[in-house]
Amino acid sequence: MKRTLGTCYYPEHWPQEIWEKDARAMADLGLTWVRIGEFAWSRLEPVEGDLHFDWLDQAIEILGKAGLQVVLGTPTATPPRWVVDKYPDMLAYDAQGRPRGFGSRRHYCFSHQGYRDECARIVTQIAQRYGQNPYVAAWQTDNEYGCHETTVSYSPAAKAAFQNWLRVQYPGQGNDGDIEALNTAWGNVFWSMEYNSFDQIELPNLTVTEPNPAHVLDFRRFASDQVVSFNRLQVDIIRRHSDAPIAHNYMGGVTDFDHFKVGDDLEISSWDSYPLGFLEDRVPANDAHKTLFYRQGDPDYQAFHHDLYRAVGRGRWWVMEQQPGPVNWAPYNPAPLSGMVRLWTWEAFAHGAEAVCYFRWRQAPMAQEQMHAGLLRPDSHPAPAHAEATQVATELKEAGTVSMTTAPVAMVFDYEADWSWQIQPQGKGLRYLDIVFDMYRAFRRLGVDVDIVPPTIDDLSGYSAVVVPAMMHVPDALNAVLQATPAQILYGPRTAARDAHFSIPTGLPPALPDMDMVITHVETFRPTVEIALEGGGNIRGYREHVETKATPVLVAQDGGAVVCQFGNKTYLGAVLDGAGLARVATALCAKGGIQTWDLPHGVRTRTTGQERFWFNHLPHDVKVYGRSLPPAGVLREPLA
Amino acid sequence: MKRTLGTCYYPEHWPQEIWEKDARAMADLGLTWVRIGEFAWSRLEPVEGDLHFDWLDQAIEILGKAGLQVVLGTPTATPPRWVVDKYPDMLAYDAQGRPRGFGSRRHYCFSHQGYRDECARIVTQIAQRYGQNPYVAAWQTDNEYGCHETTVSYSPAAKAAFQNWLRVQYPGQGNDGDIEALNTAWGNVFWSMEYNSFDQIELPNLTVTEPNPAHVLDFRRFASDQVVSFNRLQVDIIRRHSDAPIAHNYMGGVTDFDHFKVGDDLEISSWDSYPLGFLEDRVPANDAHKTLFYRQGDPDYQAFHHDLYRAVGRGRWWVMEQQPGPVNWAPYNPAPLSGMVRLWTWEAFAHGAEAVCYFRWRQAPMAQEQMHAGLLRPDSHPAPAHAEATQVATELKEAGTVSMTTAPVAMVFDYEADWSWQIQPQGKGLRYLDIVFDMYRAFRRLGVDVDIVPPTIDDLSGYSAVVVPAMMHVPDALNAVLQATPAQILYGPRTAARDAHFSIPTGLPPALPDMDMVITHVETFRPTVEIALEGGGNIRGYREHVETKATPVLVAQDGGAVVCQFGNKTYLGAVLDGAGLARVATALCAKGGIQTWDLPHGVRTRTTGQERFWFNHLPHDVKVYGRSLPPAGVLREPLA
Amino acid sequence: MKRTLGTCYYPEHWPQEIWEKDARAMADLGLTWVRIGEFAWSRLEPVEGDLHFDWLDQAIEILGKAGLQVVLGTPTATPPRWVVDKYPDMLAYDAQGRPRGFGSRRHYCFSHQGYRDECARIVTQIAQRYGQNPYVAAWQTDNEYGCHETTVSYSPAAKAAFQNWLRVQYPGQGNDGDIEALNTAWGNVFWSMEYNSFDQIELPNLTVTEPNPAHVLDFRRFASDQVVSFNRLQVDIIRRHSDAPIAHNYMGGVTDFDHFKVGDDLEISSWDSYPLGFLEDRVPANDAHKTLFYRQGDPDYQAFHHDLYRAVGRGRWWVMEQQPGPVNWAPYNPAPLSGMVRLWTWEAFAHGAEAVCYFRWRQAPMAQEQMHAGLLRPDSHPAPAHAEATQVATELKEAGTVSMTTAPVAMVFDYEADWSWQIQPQGKGLRYLDIVFDMYRAFRRLGVDVDIVPPTIDDLSGYSAVVVPAMMHVPDALNAVLQATPAQILYGPRTAARDAHFSIPTGLPPALPDMDMVITHVETFRPTVEIALEGGGNIRGYREHVETKATPVLVAQDGGAVVCQFGNKTYLGAVLDGAGLARVATALCAKGGIQTWDLPHGVRTRTTGQERFWFNHLPHDVKVYGRSLPPAGVLREPLA
């Protein structure tokens, strides 16, 4: 695999006179890729049917002739005003029942058929015109599905589409569904919530108290499926006209739709990596941690996403947007510590990225993102990231090609489990993504590489250990795959605690084979409560009560079982703090014969097939196994 | 009085095959009561007019034949979907002006006449069918009026009904009211808020800044009256067909309607006691307190409600729902410390409960309350509470019958005062219920029994002391009763500070007889401000400035009067911390000749006519007057 | 200039029998002014067209004959219910899209033409009747424009008016505007936000993510202009009938419209000063500060407004409402420390007030402000402030007339900059008003008098220093004036960082002449981050990165430039804590030859042309340069 760099460019924002100079400067820097077009609908079609492709023809020509490969985006994330005038009911509705209006971006409901038709039309026009263009080397569909909480819409269009989706999920006679099947699956006898027909079913917002979790889970599945089919609509059109690979750029920390399912329709997975932008609101960590890393970002959050999107892309993945400086949208927007842009880039490559594209080429002086840094300042001088990108480009020249190998640990990530925890956290602040991330971090702090895998994985061979954290419903197929592996398996809290329709399984959780235990009940705790483990570490926030004849391998000081083992299967029945998780991860690695490292806080290591990387996320020098790493230091060593 | 146990059962949730086994197991445990039916409308009438009583006939027969007495609930808290389709405008509206939709429970506005007609119809059907059933030994109307903040509705139906209610309150010529009387009573000359007619009057939500407090108070009285008349509608129907006593199950901490007025139409008052569910959001206490009691619940909060509902039921009261394990709805949901379910049960009996029913018999695997524990687990094995309930059942057999006696202290509780403080707290966070509760706690920490009494009480004989905390308007009738008693009277802050229409009384507060003092002005404080009392304790949050020729019996270190005495009447003009309240309560008991105890923190004592109880709410052993109490310990001693 | 006292009176609230006694008591106290009428519409015109002026005739006659001068308010802040019935669409809409209903005050949208017509009619009636009344010595338009966040409305009327306002701002052919000019100015090519016509432009609320800042800024300018024209409508009418000066009473801390522009149409500027009411929510300070000053109010907040409104009134200004005791509307409402009402009054005079009027004469027993103290209690006895007002009245008799002189420091205050920071804070919690206020405080703690000046000032002669903090767009005219002055100029962070349409200026900020520096990028920080300055003080929250060949005069410990100097121009590129700001202010005063003082914390000094005042805002005695000041002490010394 060759490793490449790129950037995101908006020719429509700049005078045509400077396009060529920009293109040359990109090439000179050593960039391979330039993404364009994804917000340009109003310039391509200022009035319905009045298509203006000339400028885009020319931009692609100029960029291509300078030696760049174009990633062409479909412009469907920003329908022009006239589209909204044509379909006033195309807007998404928020949970409060209000239309989410024109004036920024992503102002559409995935369920609106009129808007889908409009998208099909413009995508067809673009694919026809550029499908065979020699410089268009890849495609991007839309932009950051789900960003600004746009996956879930409570619009009239969504309601009608949800009823139809349910009719298919609970099929009956003829075209209609079987409403009794739905009533039974959801347990609607509870509180007399039974329906007589599908057209009585509303979206689960604005109820008096919480709605039925089974109702919400089906609604969330529906909302995710709408993204999948919206994306597929575009992919099918592009494929008819182009052989170039198609990507989508997912946004970090967005879990409202199933990225694996969208990814199944794409050649490349890519994500938008804003380490400082994510730190304040998305990383589960305390004030001290966020203060220490305020200019570096969390040392595991990006790596987690790299590993996730490597899975979503079935190996092929990019960083489509890499933060190059301060952004405009986080609660606080510091500048990266000098060296971090280089570190983030190499970290992505260490996790297997094919390309890292900096967002954006030049900081725009106007509109919503005017405070978002680029590789160039608004006055076209180099911004601080420019030198770091240049350094990486230089380093890449001598770095050669690499391949990725299977990590020792596989960790199952399940979007549906995230929705399920959102629907029923049972304790304030408990989040699936945080629990998974904390377990991921536990292995990474031990220097262990992790492959994230989808819940549909059908082969776990090659892994020494498999971690399944907090996956509330485990489908039979995955259970069968887990049965088949000789690897060490670690189940996290609440795994297999629900059936497919959000009911507690008959016979109590966990609904897992070969586990001679049941969870009799669950407790959640206020943050001031800590329940100490025998030997160190604490339970925080969530605990299960385990009934088993087996002797637990880890107990709380009050005697309750915390970790139980049955052959190669380990069950962790609590949310633990870092010290507790470190013990569980260390023990699993020991059982699985996985090498671990004693890393300084903030230092991480990662391997490709050919190299071992060391990354120092700290703002000061560290020593690690004899090596010296400066602040933001990156060390790349050939594998022995 | 005989003391009994019971449970809440949903035969419609379970296969008919297990009903008999369930019934036998209930009887074997020693239960007397089983409540059923209160959410079953969609099974009784799945489609309008299509009544299905067979299954309920059979369930009652099976339960009754097993020796259980049935409490039959009317199903009006959960109208089926078809009822909402019939009356789309029956939904309550929230303060933001949004309808509160179908999909959970309590989705109706008390003011909607169509829904009232529908309720009358189904209640008539049920009462006719089961009014003479030998196993139906009691009734419950609806379920938890006001829960999920459903007393107050801002719907069009509520607006029309409020205007009509006002026409009656301010009567004029013919059918119309006297709008000038209303303008004068409300002081509408202020800010030109005067109305020309009743149909101009809107509900007091969504105003530019705060609405007129007199407007809001009348609206809150109206909303309360709507609950009273809604309940009376059902009671009148049931009475026509049955001689069995009728109860309603109030929810703890809900004060949005006048429970005394609803209770006046019922034979039995009952409430739903969730000690751990209430701790986080409803109990006024700091983090340390909530952490210490996180598995036990607050040591006074349930007792307060027991004493309140003994008053609401005029002596006859139950716990209709007793928390048996973790619940699903609090911010954090721990399991009770072992022994606490037994303690809570005996505590209810110590305060005079006739029956304690555990909610629910078996944990349901589906829908909203799937994480709510029962006496049985979802797999029908006994949950931890089962053994504790069994122990109580055994203990009850030898405990015999008891009677309740008058407590030394009466405390007046006034729902209208709660609304008045909500309308005008004057300082952020000041709440009537908290002020009353803290004063109640002060006496309970001294081991003193308290009777809560309604503001309409007409006889205070038998009491050594009467406490009237924070009752913003004191009606003439109560003033007369207070004048007549030789008991020590303690008025709390803001007592009699308003007339019946929320104006400051002529001559300044307190509008109480025989008090040679006026409150010239009031201060409220940020939480960081503490104003020390001479001799210990502090003013927190609220203080009145007293003008009097008398010498205060307690002053602040700055010299201001805090407590004044005029004969048997004591006036406390501030909100105090625990240390300050302890001094005031101790002094009152000394003056009234009431015995006090020096109890360890977390230990409480209560007497019936025949017994003294000791309760240890702490998670560790304590000694109290020579007795040893284990964690969650209960000691029952015959009265000397 | 003569210094006078007054009060606010509502004859319509009290029986006519006591008006004369009230009037006599006011005169006896030594009051000159009495403001009346501003909320009395429903008594002047209870039904459309049915005018009742008799009572007002009589009230003015009684007050006038007692020797008082009447300030007559137009009643347009409280249209009666029948006006709203006539124009149901006259209500303002909040940002959530909900009409803000009748039932309190300020329930109108400034853009509604029907309501403007109604206002013109009632103001004409009043001006005709009282324009030549000998006792009506001044006028007040409406009441507290913008209070309760009423400047900005999202109503249909506002939308239509905004579109028309834009057509004028971006003029095109005929009556229509030039939509391409708007698209270019706003940068609407970004995210395809381009419009085809003005009637497509919506108000910038309820967008999916943040709207275009240029869109919002124009909307905020429009909203401000609507207040200006609404006020001018009334002024033009009054002027046709009366020669008495016209005032408006601005509310402290309200910055949503340009007070300078409103003030340009008035003779007198006045504001409503509630020192304790403002402390909790409006003053930027920590808990310790708010606790120390909880009964005194912030020592600089009122002074800042005094200096601001002296500028708004071009020298003529009043305190129209002075807090006399506890108020009803702040989160916490303590009583002023004894002496503070006198201190606040003298402080206003020290800053040049012509009159200070206490709000209100007598505390009302009813409606929304029943907990708002007056000079009299509701029972007509003197409230604590009465004696302090009497003392001031006595002191005034011997104090004689004074004149104001130019302060050594001018500080530019720009309402548009406040909106710009609100639109784009870039870091959570960053506010223009706070930054300006903290810089103001820095000079005041050094005992330096400050004149606040408008951004339209055309002559800075007489000033030794000029401070321009955080003014995001500096117009050319102001730049020219700043170029012309030999005074020391201190620019604060983010000055001239945007052009007139909220774009980053070509060539990077600051867009200021003679500054050999550029701001390359900006950082914002979480509150736990402190960046130490060399020599003391810290950067907090906001920092600019400066590129310059000059040697900075103040740097951070990390070496970054913080303060740069170019001749008489100093640029501060960060938000500093108090210690840091003290250093910057001290250095500026030294360079400008401005005398500074070493004042105890909480002590302030101010001069008129003839006197030096010393004010002790602390609750304990202090010594200052040999003088002793008791708590709330005021010392007035003739200038040497």
Structural commentary:
The structure is a homotrimer of 640-residue chains. With 640 residues, chain A is an alpha/beta fold. Chain A has four domains: 4-155 and 226-399, Glycosidases (TIM Barrel, Alpha-Beta Barrel), CATH 3.20.20; 157-217, no CATH class; 409-592, Class I glutamine amidotransferase (GATase) domain (Rossmann fold); 603-638, no CATH class. Chain A contains 18 helices and 24 strands. Chain A has an eight-stranded parallel β-barrel with strand order 1-2-3-4-5-6-7-8, surrounded by four helices. The first copy, chain A, is globular. The relative contact order of chain A is 0.09.
Quick summary of this structure?
The structure is a homotrimer of 640-residue chains. The first copy, chain A, is α/β, with parallel strands linked by helices.
Structurally, the number of domains of chain A stands at 4
Average pLDDT over all residues of chain A = 98
Which CATH C-level class of the largest domain in chain A is it? Alpha Beta
Low-confidence stretches of chain A: none
Q: Would you give the CATH topology of the largest domain in chain A?
A: TIM Barrel
Instruction: Please list the strands of the largest sheet of chain A in the order they lie side by side.
Output: 1-2-3-4-5-6-7-8
Rg of chain A, rounded, reads 25 Å
**CATH architecture designation of the largest domain in chain A:** Alpha-Beta Barrel
Instruction: Indicate the proportion of strand residues of chain A.
Output: 15-25%
